[in-house]
Amino acid sequence: MRYISTRGQAPALTFEETMLTGLARDGGLYVPETLPRMTPAEIAALAGLSYEEVAFRVMRPFLGDSFTDAEFGECITRAYAGFGHAARAPLKQLQDNHFLLELFHGPTLAFKDFAMQLIGQLFQTALARSGERVTIVGATSGDTGSAAMEAFRGLSNVDVFILYPHGRVSDVQRRQMTTVAEANAHALAIDGTFDDAQARLKDMFNDFTFRDEVRLAGVNSINFARVLAQVVYYFTAAVALGAPHRKVSFTVPTGNFGDIFAGYLAKRMGLPIERLVVATNHNDILHRALSSGDYVTHGVTPSISPSMDIQVSSNFERVLFDAYGRDGVAVAQLMDELRRGGFHISQGALETLRADFASGRASEAQTSAMIARARAEMGELLCPHSAVGVHVAQDFLGTTPMVTLATAHPAKFPDAVEAATGLRPALPPRMADLFERPERMTRVPDDLTQIETLIREALAK
Ligand SMILES: Cc1ncc(COP(=O)(O)O)c(C=O)c1O
Ligand SMILES: N[C@@H](CCOP(=O)(O)O)C(=O)O
């Protein structure tokens, strides 16, 4: 099993190398050279299995000989042991033929835990074997950062630095990062947006002196292992609703395009997915791009679904690679144009994308109204991101079952939920003292050199 870069100029790697490498050295993202497929019989055989067993069967072919079956099985068991629901990703009926996939029962109450808990275990296994030490730097609009800190805090062979946009994450999200006491975990509040944080992270990967000196690793969806672990719940949900004998559609609240890219992989692997609906908030570049073919950045406007306040959607590069016939030179050219403000998707590539993806957007008012309606009519308290999904899904309900991904717990965004419903969702008891814990963070300017200096100094302590 080999992984290649979307820009075609970096060496092919094994699964373990890909996981520990992060961004390819040509600036691209790693993807499998060929995608393992599951037959209808293999998919049917997933019915009735535990989440962990499905995870093993779906992901195992991607790993090659990077991990033994026993190592991988143990990593999966440890990863999901701390989840607060026996099903891990329970499915709930919302409306006729419309289901909610609850992905917020992990330790930090967002879907990021599904992948981060697992890659925490995989990193530990690989690094214990090699004796290596790595520096993880992550960019977050709120949830990746808290999940990463939770998964990597206190580990002896890892330092973790998380860049989050100052003043643009919820208080719960910020505190989940800034109250981590372990000395190997560092929250960095950048003066900028998530896009700025992600751009500086990619700059660090492209600064080979810094990258090699600190042994830089990434746990954003830059890392293919992150996306892979998110493929699993598309299988558990679709099989629970009748796959492979019945088609299923998914609506995915989308920002960096990692979660919906996992759905696209599931479809390519053989899962009968009819439609993948991209749901955006008013930062709607993906909806505009799929509607018009123009992927043009307009700047980010803060929203009540802050984790999706993104304009430069990292994983869109991965589907563009496929839509352009896996032509790395064409993708590199588009990414070059993006640095100057945007690009136009060719007609052929747009038609290819539209064969898999539909899209919609929810304004702030529509998001709030959906939180209120879901509470009143469906008995469901939604986080604003999930509400964006449920709102957009309304236009795509039909005879095929629709699953909307509930990506975070409403208690992570209590102000928005309270404003819409009058109800203030409580954090689970294990987090009840979150607002009493001392915070620790460093403000950093949106400046590569200063951020790298700060990381070097922290590592030298
Ligand atoms: C709660 C929540 N919903 C949706 C998203 C969007 O997911 P993605 O960036 O994978 O598109 C994010 C951020 O990743 C998130 O934290
Ligand atoms: N919404 C995300 C943004 C980063 O996405 P990732 O999937 O690339 O880690 C967040 O919560 O940080």
TrEMBL record:
GO terms for molecular function: pyridoxal phosphate binding; threonine synthase activity. It catalyses: O-phospho-L-homoserine + H2O = L-threonine + phosphate. It holds the Pfam family Thr_synth_N. Its EC number is 4.2.3.1. Residues 94-332 form the Tryptophan synthase beta chain-like PALP domain. Residues 2-80 form the Threonine synthase N-terminal domain. The keyword Amino-acid biosynthesis applies. Its cofactor is pyridoxal 5'-phosphate. GO terms for biological process: threonine biosynthetic process. Belongs to the threonine synthase family. NCBIfam families: thrC. This is Threonine synthase. It comes from Roseicyclus mahoneyensis.
